[in-house]
Amino acid sequence: MAAARTSLGRVLPGSSILFLCDMQERFRHSIVYFPQIVSVAARMLRVARLLQVPALLTEQYPQGLGPTVPELGAEGLQPVSKTCFSMVPTLQRELDSRPQLQSVLLCGIEAQVCILHTTLDLLERGLQVHIVVDACSSRSQVDRLTALARMRQSGAFLSTSEGLIMQLVRDAAHPKFREMGTLEDFLTPPSLYRSRRSLRSPSRTAGCWASSKARTPFSDESPALT
Fold first, then answer.
1. Which of 149, 176, 219, 226 is the most exposed place for a label (fewest CB within 10 A)?
2. Where does the record place the Isochorismatase-like domain (predicted)?
3. Is 114 a catalytic residue?
């Protein structure tokens, strides 16, 4: 029975941590939906701070790729520089110092590189990994979608920021609920939606964010994720 319960992927503030991976200046113009990815990650960070969920921030080779973008709102977090694709070797000491840790909420870029490598390392440590799918991206949708499928095959949980926020809060009577503002202030913006046409022409995808009728990456257009 215990093994069955651990596979449910419940997220609790007291046993969770937020990982923010490599959202840096040099990626601003090359990552699909970069502004939206950063916006969702910033929302996750704001909620984490309200609920006292610790957060860790990395930067991949900042000498060449630049600092973390200011829109993330990561003031007060000390970025940890790394060259390894995985965040885990650099954050080993932080992980070892948190014996109560069970769940890692993972945001950032790129899905097929640093996010994937980090996920596999965390899973090997016996931790549950929750990929915030609307806060992870790549230079191409093919890489992003394939990486999400790969991580799910390996045992990671795929969720949206809204889904994870609601798991963390659990109850509208939570004392911090009203501090988050109205529900619309922290609900997920449309995730990486795209139509068949936009899948063939990535440069035309920007408008898909505003369309509530657009298909999601989990639609029948993405058989790798079904």
1. 226
2. 16-162
3. yes
Q: For 151, phi and psi rounded to 5 degrees?
A: -70, -40
Domain 16-180 sits in CATH 3.40.50.850: yes
Which string of DSSP letters, residue by residue, matches 60-78? ESHHHH-PBPGGG--TT--
Of the candidates 21, 107, 114, 136, the residue annotated as catalytic is: 114
Identify the active-site residue in 21, 82, 121, 136.
Answer: 82
Q: Which of 7, 59, 39, 33 is nearest to 194 (CA)?
A: 33
Mean pLDDT of 76-80: 96
Q: For residues 46 and 90, what is the distance between their CA atoms, to the nearest angstrom?
A: 24
For the chain, domain boundaries: 16-180
124 cis-preceded (ω within 30 degrees of 0): no
pLDDT band at 173 (very low <50, low <70, confident <90, very high): confident
Q: Are 19 and 156 in contact (CB under 8 A)?
A: no
DSSP state of 147: H
Does this model's pTM top 0.85? My answer is no
Question: 107 catalytic, yes or no?
Answer: no
The pLDDT tens digits of the residues spanning 26-70 come to 999 999 999 999 999 999 999 999 999 999 999 999 999 999 999
CB contact set of 173 (below 8 Å; sequence gap of 6+)? none
The predicted structure's pLDDT at residue 181? 59
